[in-house]
Amino acid sequence: MKADPRGVLTGTHFIDGDHACCEGALAAGARFSAGYPITPSTEIVERFASRVPTVGGTFIQMEDELAASITLQGAVWGGAKAFTVTSGPGFSLMMEHIGYAVMTETPCVFVDVQRGGPSTGLPTLPAQADMMQARWGSHGDYEIIALCPNSPQECFDLTIKAFNLAEEFRVPVMFMMDEVVGHMTEKVVIPPADQIDVVPRRHTHKSVDDYLPYETNGDQVPEMAHAGEGYKFHVTGLTHDERGYPNMTPPVQDKLVRRLQSKIRDAADRIALFEEEQLEGADVVVISYGITSRVAQRAIEAAREQGLRVGKLRLITAWPFPEKKIHELATNIKAFVVPELNLGQMVREVERAAAGQAKTFAVSHAGGGVHNPNDILKVIVEASR
Amino acid sequence: MAKGRVSVVVERCKACGFCVEFCPSHVLALSSAFNSKGYHPPHVVHPEKCSGCDLCGMYCPDFAIFATKVKPASGGEK
Amino acid sequence: MTDNLIPGILNNDVVNPVEPFLRSDRIPHIWCPGCGIGTTVNSFARALIESKIDLQSLALVSGIGCTGRVAGYVQLDSFHTTHGRAIPFATGLKLANPKLNVVVYSGDGDLSAIGGNHLIHAARRNIDLKVICVNNLIYAMTGGQTAPTTPDDSITSTNPYGVFEPSFNLPHLVEAAGAVYVARWTTFHVRQLARSISEAFQKKGFSFIEVISPCPTLYQRRNKLGDGLDTMKYYKEKSKVRHGAPTSEVGLTMTGEIVVGKFVDRDRPDYQTLMRSQFVHSLGERFVEQAEMVCS
């Protein structure tokens, strides 16, 4: 289905990543947000608060992130596409409710504009140190989808993608920005609404008598209904069966939790997005994401000028992690170089997927700024030996 | 002729005693019978006094008892 | 005459008035003998019948705890959410679909401890929610820990030598925060409770109905206060109906007087009314009414 033109600010804009993300949400059909201010994400909902009453929707600033992260889910069950935005400390507070969205299969988007941590850390400065938290932050077993834009344009385009993936898989999608991408101002082209594809709510067509809220019919994602339509369904965070009723036994747990994982894992190839460059014949492949990918580009080019054969793999989907791709690459290359604005997070996944077939070099950074490209270049050179 | 009639869902009862205590007409008492969980459900000891007010039903936390009004038919109680 | 029955239905079609509101396939429920939660559900069902509420547009949201299990037993669009967060979830539901009648049905610990912040903000904003707070003065589901409502000197599992903290007076708290309808009853007051719930349905704004209820397994037992029936008799004997009483005067003690009644019934514009009028005033023609959100 095509985007609703009322939410699409068609045109060429000069805006930052935060603002572009807000426009992406509106273009995707989001008409509800519940938020709580936290630097450097606040501008996204400030803009939404300003735009949404002219488009036909609601924004509410809640009293804390605990409330914001569940209010948006109430809105989803009331029929809206909804999202919230936050940064590290708020992301931590939202974890219980991210788990609730996973368990109840509530489609929604959580935007984390990453900043220095841990704790209050560096509110106005970048980091990429929430990447593992995005995957493992809530308790229990689950699979998640996480996207990493590296430009304001991608903040627009990939936000739409995030909403589409959320609806398709009935899962909360983590939109992992960083403070630099959020605050950098670049050209953002917003196309006409009829050129934007949005995935509609996976709403049931079954009658009230036949519908079971967590029954799957062939594929692994159940159909949804909204409150007020007469289905009188029950939703709970307790382990539940197809009727949505609590059923706290090992067989039901096994069936449910495995399906929550496999509905995403089995589609990992389809979900995985990355940008590749010169992987053929490469000795070293630089894997990066977000703002670091832009810095790494300088290092990669400098290395190539020195005659080194360096490929680039930019992660656009960080989760599910493209294990297969890394595993295949590992058999053909000498080493991976993984610069990140953290002390080693996605690099662990690279190492794991490489399974010893290629060396893995981290280029760590505690956060607060971006890498010096020379620091990345140094490691590329070392990895090439 | 009783105005009301009590129905008991024996298997749901947990013998809390609310219905017996709060029936304004003292129609009920706990029986000596057991349900399968080992509780003594109530039984009607004064059926003629039942007004069908359904206070027993309103008090019952287990949805195990209720009273309905009997239609005054020509032949008497159903 | 007494009959053995399959749930609710006699062979001459006599039905328990509460049965159509229950998920009969899940009864018997998990609540203890003498627990009052089921009794409150009867009053709730009666209120739905009397108010002629359209059940299709009624949604019920609960939190975690014994009372939180109500959501799973009622035949309505029902949401069993996280501990303390029924009110913000309900807020989202209501804002996305203003046509819904949204009831929050949860316990004292869920609503006033972990959920306390959300309780006061929703009351402040006057969100159009009907909150039924079953107050058994304890954290029952988890084995009888102290709640903010547990009266002075009570023995609980986390205050084994007796509670020494002052406890919340919920009607006072909620009135101060801004609720437009505040009432308290006990599980003895089944008809009055049903009437209060019906009244709340007629009001727009944040309504709060506290229902004092026995927890014979934990609160009453640990404090040697008898069983559920003893507690109901205590409610009957020691409750005093004082409509309009100042909420500052309705605090509870372990064995003292229980002031019940309708304490607050006032009118204030609800959140959505305020929001809409602000936008109309500031944006004029640029304001776009929230369309039906249903996206499919």
Task: Please describe what this structure looks like.
The complex is a heterotrimer of chains A (385), B (78) and C (296). Chain A is built from 14 helices and 16 strands. Chain A has 385 residues and is an alpha/beta fold. Chain B has two helices and four strands; from the N terminus they run E-H-E-E-H-E. Chain C has 296 residues and is of the alpha/beta class. Chain C has an eight-stranded mixed sheet with strand order 2-1-3-4-6-5-8-7, with helices on both faces. Mean pLDDT of chain C is 94; it is low at 1-11. At the A-C interface, strand 2, helix 3, helix 5 and strand 10 of A face strand 2, helix 3, helix 5 and helix 10 of C. Strand 10 of chain A pairs parallel with strand 2 (77-80) of chain C.
Give a concise summary.
Chain A is α/β, with parallel strands linked by helices. Chain A has 14 helices and 16 strands.
List keywords for this structure.
heterotrimer, B: 78 residues, alpha+beta, Alpha-Beta Plaits, two-stranded antiparallel ribbon, 4 strands, C: 296 residues, alpha/beta, Rossmann fold, eight-stranded mixed sheet, 10 helices, 8 strands, 33% helix, globular
Structural class of chain B, by secondary structure, is alpha+beta
CATH topology of the largest domain in chain A: Rossmann fold
| CATH-defined fold name of chain B | Alpha-Beta Plaits
The CATH C-level name of the largest domain in chain A is Alpha Beta
Biggest interface between chains = A-C, 52 and 48 residues
CATH superfamily of the largest domain in chain A: Thiamin diphosphate (ThDP)-binding fold, Pyr/PP domains
What form of chain A results from the Cα inertia axes?
globular
Task: Using the coordinates above, name the CATH class of chain B.
Answer: Alpha Beta
Provide the CATH architecture of the largest domain in chain A: 3-Layer(aba) Sandwich
Q: How far apart lie the N and C ends of chain A?
A: 51 Å
**Which architecture of chain B would the CATH scheme give at its second level?**
2-Layer Sandwich
The mean pLDDT of chain A is 97
Q: What proportion of the residues of chain A is helical, as a percent range?
A: 25-40%
Characterize the overall form of chain B. elongated
Order of helices and strands of chain A: EHEHEHEHHEEHEHEHEEHHEEHEEHEHEH
| SSE series of chain B | EHEEHE
Q: Helix proportion of residues of chain B, in percent?
A: 10-25%
Q: Tell me the major beta sheet of chain B.
A: 2 strands, antiparallel
Name the strands of the widest sheet of chain B in spatial order. 1-4
If you average the pLDDT of chain B, what whole number results?
Answer: 92
Rg calculated over all Cα atoms of chain A: 21 Å
